[in-house]
Hints:
The chain is an alpha/beta fold.
Amino acid sequence: MSVLQEISPNVKNMKQLEYVVLARRASQIMEELRKGARKPYSEVIDVSWGDPHRAGVKPLSFVRQVLAACLYPELVNSNKLPVDVRQRAQRLLGQCAGGSIGSYTATAGIAEIVHRVSEFITRRDGGAPSHPENIFISAGSQWALQNILKVLVNSKSSPKTGVLTPVPCHCTTTLSIMGLGAVVIPYYLSEEQGWELQVEELDRALESAKGVCNPVALYVINPGNPSGHIQRRKSIQEVIRFVSEKKLFLLADEVYQGCVYGEKSEFISYKRVLAEMGPPLSDTVELASFHSASKGFMGECGMRGGYVELINLDPDVMKYIYKLFSKDSCAPVLGQIALDLMINPPQPGDPSYPLYNVETQNIRTMLVHNVKRAFEVVNSLPGFCCQPVEGGAFAFPRLHLPPKAIQKAKEVGLQPDTFYCIRLLEEAGVLISPGCEYGQKEGTHHIRFCIMTSEVMMEELLRRLTCFHTQFMKDFS
């Protein structure tokens, strides 16, 4: 009997990502270049991921030095590293079983690190209390999100479980929801209003789910991915009242909270707003908030370190969540350490602070430059319209394609924006993602590219995009 017959229908229903086709072709092109093939470019620029180090952003010295000393403890007793680096590594190793990062930790993470995450949240939220017993460190925020979804989704229920999910939305989340047998209930962010989340749209989406599924949760991303918007306090308050009234669990993906670019923009966590709204909301709204060491100035995607903080959950439910996290033993220890370094960086007066401050300020200046340049250049191109990027790691401009290009895409069996991305890859050596991967209103097309790159890479990206787009629009005019 073929194993195909035994595969879960939920897994079979997960759509294949458009990116897979692009990534496969990009690998082939890179191999062709290595073998000496002649193309208009000498290398492929990959800005399809929110992966800063892949895109030329240098790792922070302090982070890598501490990680190095934890991996090779002999460095702790040498003078090759700053004294505060050695002290931090020594302290972290002392909190590992057997003094080694090769040991298992507690299910929720190294206890001392969990406590420091709790202290970080309290500082971030203006003193609103955070409790260590409500925090679980995981192998990245998406891993934690999937565990919480497993608690919320009943794959055998009829009607199926539903989760309200933004459009556009990071595709990993929607795939996770579908893979668990739940229904994605799309609600559309308002592109014309800078990708604003509107409660009226949440009402429409909830109404559309009647007779289709049983909605149990609302998923929000702030700052947005891929939209780049940042929610205002009033909007967050409206969402909290909405989930309270509709009795929905609130899932807040806040992994880009350290990436804010707009002059008048400010990140405010859902946890803080909920606490400041006071009872009865602060005592009853069930919330899961996610953060990660993969994003922001750290950019340590490969370390796989994230956390979830749970608010107002029934103790009996927490027991099941503990069981789910227990099945993975623990998060990678290096990821836990990276998380600790993110929430407790060097402070003024520490030997590592001057270099750390210079490096982080350079990254911030670079990102602000990239956002400004991407916005200016893309909006100067005919057929493009990009909303301001206030935060996050991506630009998500709308692409108005000529009818001939849309027709050609249909003839070759591709979505129009995927067709555009493949042509961009082939002719200009730039790998980006098509908007259809993240959801978009019918009849609209978008592309997504990472702005967390080196300035050199961003300028080369925009140069290649400009040349390609100009010729593309001529070809299909």
